[in-house]
Amino acid sequence: MKKLLIPVLGMALSLPAIAQQAPKPYGALPSARQLKWHDTEMYCIVHFTPTTFEDKEWGYGDADPKTFNPSNFDAEQIIRSAKAGGFRGIVCVAKHHDGFCLWPTKTTDYNISKSPFRNGKGDMVRELEQACRKNGMKFAVYCSPWDRNNKDYGTDKYLATYQAQLRELYTNYGPVFMSWHDGANGGDGYYGGARETRKINNLVYYDWDNTWKITRELAPDACIFSDVGLDVRWVGNERGFANETSWATFTPTSADGKSKGVPGNANDKDAPTGTRNGKYWIPAECDVSLRPGWFYHESQNNRVKTPQQLLDLYFKSVGRGAALDLGLSPDKRGQLHDIDVASLKGLGDLLRKTFGTNIAATAQVSATGSRGKAFPVKNMLDNDRKTYWASQDEVTTPELTIAWKKPATFNIVGIREAIALGQRIDGFAIDVWQDGQWKEVHKGTSVGALRLVRLPNYYSTEKIRLRITDSPVAVTVAELGVYAEPEQLVAPVIRRDKDGQVTISSPASVHAIRYTIDGSEPTASSAVYTKPFELKHPGTVKAKAFGASGSGATESVQFDIPSAGWSIDQNAAKAIDGDPQTVWYSPRSGKYPHTLTLNLGQSTTLKGFTFLPDGSDHRSGTVYGYQVWVSEDGQNWGDPVAEGRFDNIQNSPIEQRVLFRTPKAGKYLRFTATEPTDSKQTWANVAELGVITK
Question: Could you give the angle at which helices 124-134 and 158-173 cross, rounded to 10 degrees?
Answer without folding.
Answer: 30
